[in-house]
Amino acid sequence: MINIAKIKETVEHKIAGSDMFIVDIGISADNKINIVVDSDSGGVNIGDCAAISRAVEEALNRDDDDFELEVASAGLSSPLKMLRQYQKNINKDIDIVFKNGKKLTAKLICATVDNVVVEYEEKMIVENKKHKQKITKNETIMLADVKSVKAVVLFK
Fold first, then answer.
1. Mean pLDDT across the chain
2. Could you tell me the CATH number of the domain that includes residue 31?
3. How far lies 126's CA from each of 38, 91, 104, 113, 122, in Å?
């Protein structure tokens, strides 16, 4: 039986001293191990993934368990899963999909384990104005009400 705690310990040891961190470790019923890592400074390159893969391969015994191993970086289109990912995206735009289907694009102002504070513009009717005016709003959103949050990727 593959021990997820041993895999986690191996990966943490390998990335110690770097700004990389574990986003997720999963093991499927057919022993496919998926490890997702990210970094505070931006991205994780293929060399980092290969080094982590080699370390895990060395720590596990193929004679005991046959397994498939995949190590990947958290992609640009991957949902944010942990507080550290939210914190690295502060002052950047995010796309939020709520459990009720509503969507919102806003700038991430701050994040905690339970909620995020975002800033966005909304057109609203303002007294004594003929047309709707853009009003900047700040809103605290409970993560329990959110289906997914992704960083907005801008190509300039």
1. 92
2. 3.30.300.20
3. 44, 27, 22, 35, 12
In the chain, which stretches have pLDDT less than 50? none
Give the whole-angstrom CA distance, residue 151 versus residue 138.
Answer: 18
The answer to whether 62 and 40 have CB atoms below 8 angstroms apart is no
Residue 137 belongs to a domain with what CATH number?
2.30.30.100
pLDDT at 86: 95
How many Cα atoms are found within 13 Å in the side-chain-facing hemisphere of 81?
14
pLDDT, position 25: 96
Retrieve residue 82's tokens.
């942990």
Rounded to 5°, the CA angle 147-151-152 comes to 115
